[in-house]
User: What shape does this take?
Amino acid sequence: MPFDPASFNPPTRTLMGPGPSDVPPRVLEALSRPTIGHLDPRFVEMMEEVKGLLQYAFMTENALTMPVSAPGSAGMETCFANLVEPGDKVIVCINGVFGGRMKENVVRCGGEAVVVEDEWGSVVDPQKVEAALQAHPDAKILAFVHAETSTGAQSDAATLCRLAGEHGCLTIVDTVTSLGGTPVKVDEWGADAVYSGTQKCLSCVPGLSPVTFSDRALEAVKSRKTPVQSWFLDLNLVLGYWGSGAQRTYHHTAPVNSLYALHEALLILREEGLENAWARHELNHRALKAGLEAMGIGFVVKEGDRLPQLNAVTVPEGVDEAAVRRTLLEEFNLEIGAGLGVLAGKVWRIGLMGHASNRRNVLFCLAALESVLSRMDAPIEKGVAVDAAMAVYD
Amino acid sequence: MPFDPASFNPPTRTLMGPGPSDVPPRVLEALSRPTIGHLDPRFVEMMEEVKGLLQYAFMTENALTMPVSAPGSAGMETCFANLVEPGDKVIVCINGVFGGRMKENVVRCGGEAVVVEDEWGSVVDPQKVEAALQAHPDAKILAFVHAETSTGAQSDAATLCRLAGEHGCLTIVDTVTSLGGTPVKVDEWGADAVYSGTQKCLSCVPGLSPVTFSDRALEAVKSRKTPVQSWFLDLNLVLGYWGSGAQRTYHHTAPVNSLYALHEALLILREEGLENAWARHELNHRALKAGLEAMGIGFVVKEGDRLPQLNAVTVPEGVDEAAVRRTLLEEFNLEIGAGLGVLAGKVWRIGLMGHASNRRNVLFCLAALESVLSRMDAPIEKGVAVDAAMAVYD
Assistant: This one.
């Protein structure tokens, strides 16, 4: 081999992009505990606890609540592959990257996608959704993104789920960026198939995707006329391992250590309490916003529709946005995110997710951003950001 | 919530089942290093090293050599979902659980499976395969399991790949249990799509599936007439992230920490050297075999066809096999595996994989097994196993 790699020692970054977010030491330590067998009775006990803790996080009593053994995209695919049969009509709301990915999933499952489109940065418009539900009484599923990670917009999941229910539709809801950061009330919403990720507001390592299915959704999976096209994601099989009862059937080898980490991350969430976590995300968002606005930097999403944990902000006139991110990373070990899709080059995405949503990070980010932008002679207000943020905390 | 979970502290087991195997402290430590972004330039450098190290392990120069972000079953599905189009004919060799799973994959991809069956515990019969290739000149793919984890049989991959090549077929090869334990010579065999797992002879945590595709196989993926039915596993998209070049396109969030661990596990393999690792697996297998045979316990697979890293052995007459495993786990913290499918209740599967393939484990397992079987009045020879094993090492 022409190369001679050594052990990889990552730099210590501050992760304020769209995820992964900073993982607390307690979770990293849990991750590194000795591996045991995926059918070990002690491990099975822990699996039960993970299910219970996820029910807490999702605010649901759904029996089918578990982590898929792969990242959030596989959680999305779990929902679509299990619920969409060839020919099924699915109303898909697109207001950013992840709605587009949902549509792609529908098509690949042989379904027919009816698209309800809203501008990137806007929330999903319930009126358009209601019109689509009326125009397509044969639709089986309404799919939408609660927290659009590409824009920072938070849609009204309660209303959208209610409309779907009134028209006899199941719902598939993306809560990858919301779970643990803003309210995800699965039972209160009456949502049917909901997926999330571990590397955002749960502050766990990336690689798992928590999902929860209502009994109605599970019934639809069990009464399919065609087999689920994915063997790996087929819930009829996965439940042999993750379902209840002492007897677990081998399906695939679970990612044992990542599940230790998720268990610990969920414990931390429960110790803090969901409501407190939401309030903390809100407070740090307000401080960051005050600082950014004092500098003269605006938001993509209009006030009231914003996710506090994912701030998509506009790049000041004439600034090379990639150079700013590079400098923040190289000089400050600080990661913020680039824009995706139509927003590429125009916005930054500043995450305040989970463990990373704290005052230190808010002040550090504002100070570092101001320093870098000043050197580039960007048209910003100087010397005011940190004070403006501090005023929110005081 | 009716329960009050605390941090999970797993017991320290010795893992001698069919996987996961014991993960060395160096790998667990690497796993727990601080998470960084999946698009961080330093992380991208590490990804390149992982690809190079996997090429070493697979003995290939295939450019498409990378870990899938999910367990071995998803690696299997990556191969089938990308190569099988609706209507494609695939010859599938079944001599255990995983051949059966391959067939299931073919069907779910809309392909037509032609099954070549051999008894569980036997290797795949090249003569039957040749007959099938002749009878089905329109077959596109030959799929077989190199190392059948359910039985411990190792098939002749070189011959099977040669036959496929002579008939213009691509090959899909399961090396989940062989990679790092016995020779997997992808380029020498001329294999086309090969997948493995991290939790067997690589002694890494479970959750990733290394795969390698020949240029010919990649060409077949790129020239598909229909889209790959899985968005998550579509290599046309995954390669935007894992392909070469400085510019990485976001596809899904990579399991960052698990990849640190795989990097470290592959470094350990390279430090030891593939040939030395194979010799170590062979030596410890011979010692275990000597001890078991001295006790009067026989093997499922005939000599010469056995995987040294996975020993399927017959349960002595009249012994409650589950009780033996339970006692080993509870009293000795020692995990050995149960039989699967038609072998359930009849065999144990004793793994000597990766880091766990060492003299301490061989002697410990023999001593513990003899102790438990003696107490159950099993018809075994006593007081001879350890000496017989030691004679192999001397």
